[in-house]
Amino acid sequence: MRPSLIAATILLTGSLLAGLGFCALLPPFEGFDETAHYSYIQQIAQTGSRPQLNDPMAADVDDYFKAVPTPMKAPWSYWAFFRAPAETVQAGAAAIHGARDPLRRWRPGTSNNWEGQHPPLYYALLSPIWLLSKSWSIYAQLFLLRAVSYLFAWGGLVIVTVTLARRSAASSATPLLVVGPALWPALFPMWFPEMARLGNDSLVLLLLALAWVVTRRAIGPRGQTLQFALLGGLCGLALLTKATALPFVAALGLFLTWRVWRSRRNAAMRRIEISQLLVFCLVLAAIAGWWHLKNFIDYGSPILSADSIALAKQGGMLKGLSENFSLPMSIRGLASIVRSFAWTGTWSFVSLPRVTEVPLSILVAVVAAGWIWQVSKARTISDIDAISVLTLALFGIALLHHMLVFIALFGAYTPGDWYLHSLAPLLAPLLARGLAEAARWRRARPAIGALVSYPLLFLATVTAFHLFYFAGCLSEAVSGRRYELTEITACAGSPHELLSHLAVLGNPAFAIPLFGVGWAVILTGILIVIARWFFCAERPQLLHGRGP
Length: 548
What we know:
Layout: H1 3-25, H2 34-47, E1 55-58, H3 59-64, H4 78-81, H5 86-97, E2 108-113, H6 121-132, H7 138-168, H8 176-187, H9 191-195, H10 201-218, H11 225-239, H12 246-262, H13 267-299, H14 306-313, H15 317-324, H16 327-342, H17 358-378, H18 383-410, H19 424-438, H20 445-470, H21 487-492, H22 495-505, H23 508-533, H24 540-543
Antiparallel strand pairs: 1-2
């Protein structure tokens, strides 16, 4: 087995174990929007119908929150919960770990399910898993649902890795290209809170990975019309999962249209490419068109967005920005784009001092600079990479629009750049090329090697802080505070109490060793990558080459 494939296998094994461990570490509903995602799945599983936008949440969720601490801090924060009377803690433990009546029916609750804006595919796929585990405790059921969801995302990385390994075996591509997808979770720690939770981004990633594989073949010299039909089907399924797939679908459509224009002087080729474009569009429309047409009829917009609909009711973007726009707020929002991609955390927003996140942002900048430098030297870019870059650009425009909508509506910014992790199949090859180019910078190698190893150290530290927070050790006296590294010493002084508190919320005896072993395996893979491609003897053929 080639060294690059060995390193990729080690990294993927580590991210599988660490990801499943992270699924088990999080208390119920600690992941972003998990309450709404869970309620959506339950409603489909028990009623066969999906929620409309802002329909009631499941009463099961409301009932659960009456007895346990939550990220929303009502009725208790983690800090307050573990200082409540013993009877309160015991009742919370029973709500988390107790078996439930499998004959209970769906009941609407009091809060609104804002995730009714999303298409139903992800929730329909997980509804059989919900039915299978409906008598389990809420902790056990959520772990199963999270684990299945995480396997979607992890499987997407595996698919891209296998594809690159097969293609690079007969090419001069950099070995780091094969390792790129496996490096993604190791270099960008926000991968774990984003994908090791209940949420449809994981299925988007899997479908984009499959679409990326088919795209490589379809736009090649041996592309067949059947492949464009398959590509349209995959893109249609992605649009039935979440609107974040739209930038890729739009980029692909623009590329295929440009390809037709490029062949305008070759009548035979142009006919073939027009027919392939039409097949792609027809299959795409047949699968996903009904959803967007229904949204247009019901809400006046083909893309159902709760925030955009609410803004329209309040007078629209211009009116909202005229009332709430702030230049400093917009600058902070733009500056936080890279930072929120590298780390945002969970729904409790546990954060370390800002300086600890700086190396993560620098690593992103180094990779981007390496890729730009490599492309400028080669003076060419492959078609598949061009589609990926265009997707990233369109995604950035969508994020900017989302930020402006949020400012106009609430007078606050929210970049939401963690959604970029669902584009990992498209961006991982660019990551590998940028990192390979950076590895050629002799004087910068030690610093870049340190940057590559830093995210794992950050992940271990910030995960420990999360556990201390969940165990009620870290105070919440100040809203949105960032915790100091010195606070870890005081919390670590009572391990028995910490573990007993975490056992109320989950299963630390299972979760911590699983995450820890996965983290150690990832570290082993990172050290192999650094030793072989950053501090080895000068071997340009190992560090540079055109991609397959």
